[in-house]
Design a protein that fits this description.
single chain; alpha+beta; 6-stranded mixed sheet; 7 helices; YkoP-like domain-containing protein
Length: 194
């Protein structure tokens, strides 16, 4: 990626972070940023049969795209890019679990929910996947994420052309209990494995 473009993106990312009230899990070390809000949408059933209803309090999950772009700026291979992202997600989940478990209102939070185009391979990590409705908001989000993919991904332009007009944008989600039980307790072993 062009260094000047990356620098401009860094400035924009700071503005975006402040406008969206996103909280860093661990700035410069964790791939996730989050914000507490009310879930809006159809009921989501997690792999451990927890149901996230419209109006439930959730931790909205955002992949820190700019941070990942800085990590992967020298990567040209698609497979290496995917493995790098997976590794950073695995390394970041234990800190996310600890963060959620330490929140004052943790008992009110039902789970974590994110929207992404990078959803392949997340089910073994404990996430469930569902489609998103084609509202104006999600059309905008798809456009924005496609732009990010084109910038960050080594074959972004070709990948987007192969998708044509398909909508690979998905909701990924996990219950709070599953996140905490699976990742907070295994923080040490995961850290040693990667």
């Amino acid at each position: 990626m062009n260094t000047s473009l990356l620098m401009l993106w860094g400035y924009w990312d700071e503005i975006y972070q402040r406008c969206t009230r996103l909280t860093y899990i661990e700035k410069g070390k964790n791939i996730f940023r989050v914000v507490v809000l009310r879930y809006r949408g159809e009921p989501l059933v997690t792999t451990d049969n927890c149901i996230i209803h419209d109006g439930d309090l959730i931790l909205k999950l955002h992949i820190h795209n700019y941070y990942f772009a800085t990590l992967s700026k020298e990567v040209k291979d698609e497979l290496r890019m995917a493995l790098l992202l997976r590794r950073h997600i695995l390394q970041s989940l234990p800190k996310l679990a600890t963060f959620l478990n330490s929140m004052e209102n943790k008992d009110q939070i039902k789970g974590i929910v994110g929207t992404t185009m990078l959803h392949k391979g997340v089910t073994p990590l404990g996430f469930s996947i569902s489609d998103v409705p084609m509202t104006r908001f999600f059309r905008y989000k798809r456009w924005y994420l496609r732009l990010m993919l084109r910038i960050v991904h080594p074959n972004g332009k070709r990948r987007l052309q192969s998708w044509n007009h398909e909508m690979p944008l998905k909701r990924v989600y996990m219950s709070k209990d599953l996140l905490v039980n699976r990742y907070a307790e295994s923080k040490q072993s995961l850290g040693e494995s990667y």
